[in-house]
Amino acid sequence: MGALAGFHFFPALSDNKLGKPTVVGIGAGGKGTADINGASKAGFQVIGLVDVIDANKLEKPEGRLRKMSQTRQQFPDAKFYTDYREMLSEMGDQVDAVTVSTPDHHHYHASALAMQAGKHVYCQKPLTHGTWEARQLSQLAKQTGVKTQMGNQAHANDHMRRCVELIRAGVIGKVEAIHAWTNRPIWPQGFTDPPSPEPVPTGIDWEQWVGPAPWVDYSPRIAPFAWRGWWNYGTGALGDMACHIMDLGYWSMQPDDGPALAPKAVTAKQNGATEYSPPINSIITWDFGQSQYSAKDGFQFFWYDGYVDAKFDRENWVLAKNGNDYNHPSEEILEGMDFSKYGSVIVGEEGKLFFNRSRNNWVLKTSNGIDGFEWPETTLPRARDQDNYKEWFDAVEGKILQSESNFGLAGPMTETILLGVIAQRNPGTRLEWDREAMQIKGHPELQNQIQREYRKNWTPTA
Fold first, then answer.
1. More confident residue, 323 or 105
2. Which helix (H) or strand (E) holds 364?
3. Which of 81, 212, 343, 360 could form a disulfide with 245 if both were Cys (CB 3.0 to 4.6 A apart)?
């Protein structure tokens, strides 16, 4: 992958005279507030903020925009920019690392530019908006050697790492299937036409917000919150939550060596997807071949999202749900377990492991086939204070080799998840994946959903 057009790159090492690693927050409101604070508490010096919303120009910051104003006040000495390309150009020799907390469609460009300039990167999930982009970032991280971390925070929790160790040690036998589910989306999805355009408020750089993605006129029904419900800018409930909820299952099945785990095929059933917007609910199935920890015939990974009887209410521009029942595995899989208290279940030949990333009281249901099971020793490194920001900081400081959710793992997992997005956009069709060629077999017309075109001045060049 080459540089992005019109950008000048700087040497990898910053001219850091502050005594501790410096960081710039790209995306300073919403999730960016938590990421910047997390990085600061971990030990970074915050020297810059980037956001398309200039809180100092807002007449009356309210709701989510109030966080933006608070972040500016919290770090008054940090230089402010609305364009991360300008920030890297002007501050490049002062910056050691960046956090990327933008909408999905900027993740790749902001992270790639930073890594190419030798900066360590913490990027929110999903790692990228598109499958090709995820492959590029994982390769770029390997080429540059910078320290990387995706923002699926529970990856740093001891109970998740212990469950990975147990599954790999055979506590439920060889894995046959994995199920993961969420009640998201909680924002509008399934609309057939864009909302009516409105004037861009003072203080918002809308041209920069759209950035590399297809143009759309401003509406508060798009930003700052509801962009996840747009194909062009977000990746729906799947992109928002799967990097959290599918993490245990995907990580557990990752081979000790060799190529990263990749599916052979993916299929989706969905309700409500349109030209503009992801579905109101969906069920996705990935087919994997045999792996180190799977049953002989391989395993399947199932994803469930959305409320069963929800509808898009255009008049009020909301997702109106009818009842509290959201997509989840069958009773045969759950065996009486309350699906609302868990997010995934790993099904093995000798039992099941029920897991919720937010709780450490995971549950084993096993057969007598594991009589005599020897509980494994700790094999995975543990994050300092179970904090993913501190783990990334320790990697940047050289105290550990790399964060566990580095782009070498996060890239392939995001790539797999975003194949599910393509399946949602092409429901009912079994899409066979050629990992090496990065193609869906027999469907050349879908290549633009794997790697899309960018707007002028945002296209990677050789």
1. 105
2. strand 363-366
3. 343
Residue 93 belongs to domain with CATH number = 3.40.50.720
Q: Which of 2-6, 109-113, 413-417, 451-455 has the lowest mean pLDDT?
A: 2-6
Residue 233 backbone dihedrals phi, psi, to 5 degrees: -125, -30
Cα dihedral 195, 217, 243, 124, rounded to 10, equals -140
pLDDT tops 70 at residue 5:
no
- Indicate whether 128 and 192 sit together in one domain: no
Residues linked to residue 24 through DSSP beta bridges, in sequence order: 48, 98
In the chain, pLDDT over 70 holds for what percent of residues? 95
> Phi and psi of 210, rounded to 5°?
-65, -40
For residue 399, what are the contacts with CB-CB under 8 A and spacing of at least 6? none
CA distance 400 to 87: 29
Cβ contact 18:95 at 8 Å: no
**Whether the predicted pLDDT of 153 surpasses 60:** yes
416-460 pLDDT, tens per residue? 999 999 999 999 999 999 999 999 999 999 999 999 999 998 987
Residue 16's pLDDT is 55
Helices then strands, each counted (H, E), the chain: 13, 17
Q: Which two tokens stand for residue 325?
A: 């029942």
Domain extent at residue 357: 157-382+412-450
What are φ and ψ of residue 222, in 5° steps? -110, -50
Is 211 in the same domain as 67? no
Same domain for 237 and 90: no
- pLDDT digit string, tens, across residues 337-348: 999 999 999 999
Q: How far is CA 308 from CA 185, 205, 411, in A?
A: 11, 38, 31
In the three-class reduction of DSSP (H, G, I as helix; E, B as strand; rest coil), residue 415 is classed as: helix
Q: Specify the CATH number for the domain of residue 360.
A: 3.30.360.10
Whether 402 and 416 map to the same domain: the answer is no
**Residue 131 shares a structural domain with residue 187:** no
Tabulate helix, strand, coil % of the chain (nearest 5).
Answer: 35, 20, 50
Q: Are residues 207 and 318 in the same domain?
A: yes
CA nearest neighbour of 344 among 185, 178, 184, 183: 178
Count of domains in the chain?
2
CB 248 within 8 A of CB 344: yes
Token pair for 116: 């190419």
Q: Does 225 lie in the same domain as 201?
A: yes
Residue 359: CB atoms within 10 Å = 13
